[in-house]
User: Which sequence fits this backbone?
């Protein structure tokens, strides 16, 4: 571990253990999260034209106190894979990689965000984070243990995504759904909602187990 990474990782772990308080901005700095220019060379308009069904125009990131709640509740293990589909700038995977022993995968459609995430992983010296530049709607999730979905699609695409997910997931998949995709999983009979003890409002958060 480099001397640069050590203070950042220790700060994140202390926040995770609830031994220090911190703002989201201070945690972003610790994780070396630096947003890029999403309008460069017409990149964003071109993607909006091609993938108009996806909600990636604006991105605020999952609040860190909610990420902490999720990771502490799930307690992922070394042989498991945690995937964030629509990862933005990597708030979830970068934080998780500092506090949990499992592998992490970030799927993000915007190249500038993927570049920023890779830069953050290098600066932090993380070797358990994989960044995939691609469309979350078309990925295969058969090796994923935990799949986080925080508002990745507009509502009319959620059912389409769930239909594809059921064809490419394994029997051990757990889905963490947040915001506008929660109701779609609650309405689908192939997933069973699990009671979890987290400090996140139930109306916009749910954990679901694939039951087939």
Assistant:
């Amino acid at each position: 571990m480099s001397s640069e990474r050590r203070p950042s990782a220790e700060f994140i772990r202390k926040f995770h253990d609830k031994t220090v308080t911190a703002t989201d901005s201070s945690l972003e700095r610790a994780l070396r999260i630096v947003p890029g220019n999403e309008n460069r060379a017409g990149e964003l308009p071109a993607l909006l034209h091609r993938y108009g069904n996806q909600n990636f125009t604006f991105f605020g990131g999952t609040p860190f106190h909610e990420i902490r709640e999720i990771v502490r509740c799930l307690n992922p293990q070394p042989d498991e894979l945690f995937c964030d589909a629509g990862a933005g700038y990597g708030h979830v995977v970068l934080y998780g990689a500092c506090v949990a022993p499992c592998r992490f995968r970030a799927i993000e459609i915007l190249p500038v965000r993927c570049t920023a995430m890779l830069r953050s992983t290098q600066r932090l010296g993380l070797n358990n984070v994989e960044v995939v530049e691609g469309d979350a709607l078309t990925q295969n999730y058969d090796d994923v243990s935990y799949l986080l979905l925080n508002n990745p699609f507009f509502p009319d695409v959620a059912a389409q995504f769930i239909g594809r997910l059921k064809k490419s997931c394994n029997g051990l998949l757990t889905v963490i759904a947040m915001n506008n995709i929660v109701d779609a999983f609650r309405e689908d009979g192939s997933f069973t909602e699990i009671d979890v003890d987290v400090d996140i409002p139930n109306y916009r958060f749910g954990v679901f187990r694939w039951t087939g």
